[in-house]
Design a protein that fits this description.
This protein is α+β, with helices and mostly antiparallel strands and 302 residues long. 30% of the residues lie in helices and 21% in strands. The strands form four sheets. Strands 1, 4, 5, 6, 7, 8 and 9 form a seven-stranded mixed β-sheet that branches. The protein has a two-stranded antiparallel ribbon with strand order 2-3. Strand 7 and strand 8 form a beta hairpin.
């Protein structure tokens, strides 16, 4: 293997992705932006064109990228890429044969410490590139690889992580992998509109957690999320706006008595007593038990 060339191609790819991502407000790329790039006059395939898979360009000895396709909430993914008990994400083998050429290509990344780009499907035909990632472990019995974020993690015994190390890994995994999917699934469920005011500009929308992701029941799943514009998200986080388990919006009593400009009047005070705009599918409705827990927090803060 020409390791110097392998590293040079990856460095060029990451710079190429940096340039593309810098032009995207949400750090996502469309599928046709991730087909190939030019390296010294050669078109290098960035990822498999047909969705999920391990990509090893013909001119390289090791894999260059991996892809996980987008799965809408409530549907089963074609492959079950999971988070392991150590907090690190897993990536399933291509097929069942550990010696399949694609699996060997990923194993070569681990053997030589080569970084990859991970294309995470967040909407149909739209991907969040995460890079660099490393193959830090290989489990032939489970037919899966362990992904890490640092070259130094290759070969480490992840089962021996201290509680503090495991919390760090889980936070990294949430931030890089779970949160982008959570955002897109929530916005998709709410048809890219604020559930309080119906603002439809996705650049101004967030996927708000009902229960924070650092708390029990704070899982990044659609029933723990609500699509909110940035002002209503901030108000929700600061307990100036609450949502009852019957989906009614409640504004902090002191805020209702204030006199200020039109943003306060029309953006917050007039929302008091309105019903939340719910998703089309009942399976995506906000979880009432979580809403009740969060509304208790709102009342205690008021």
């Amino acid at each position: 293997m020409d390791v110097i060339r392998e590293i040079a191609v990856r460095t060029a790819l990451f710079l190429h992705l940096d340039a593309l991502v810098s032009l995207s407000f949400d750090e996502t790329l469309k599928w046709d932006q991730t087909e190939s790039f030019d390296f010294e006059g050669e078109a290098i395939t960035i990822r498999q064109v047909h969705g999920r898979g391990i990509n090893k360009p013909a001119s390289l000895a090791a894999a260059l990228s991996i892809t996980t396709s987008f799965t809408p909430f409530g549907q089963l993914p074609p492959y079950e890429d999971l988070e392991g008990p150590d907090g690190y994400p897993r990536y399933k083998y291509e097929g069942t044969d550990p010696n399949h050429y694609a699996n060997r290509a990923l194993r070569s990344c681990m053997d030589f410490g080569l970084p990859l780009a991970y294309f995470l499907g967040v909407r149909r035909g739209v991907y969040r590139p995460i890079y660099p990632v490393f193959i830090i472990g290989d489990n032939p019995n489970g037919r899966e690889f362990t992904l890490g974020y640092h070259r130094a993690e290759i070969g480490m015994d992840t089962s021996s992580l201290s509680p503090a190390e495991r919390r760090y890994v889980i936070e990294q995994t949430r931030r890089r992998l779970h949160q982008p999917i959570f955002r897109e699934q929530v916005l998709d469920a709410y048809a890219s509109a604020c559930a309080v005011c119906q603002l439809r500009h996705s650049q101004l929308l967030d996927a708000a957690h009902i229960i924070g992701d650092s708390k029990p029941h704070g899982d990044p799943v659609v029933p723990n999320g609500i699509a909110l514009c940035k002002i209503h998200h901030a108000s929700f986080d600061q307990n100036l706006l609450g949502i009852r388990p019957d989906y009614m919006v409640v504004i902090n009593a002191e805020l209702l008595r204030e006199i200020d400009g039109p943003m306060l009047k029309h953006g917050l005070q007039e929302m008091h007593g309105q019903l939340l705009r719910l998703p089309r599918r009942k399976v995506a409705y906000p979880d009432k038990a979580r809403l009740e827990e969060r509304f208790d927090e709102f009342r205690n803060a008021s």
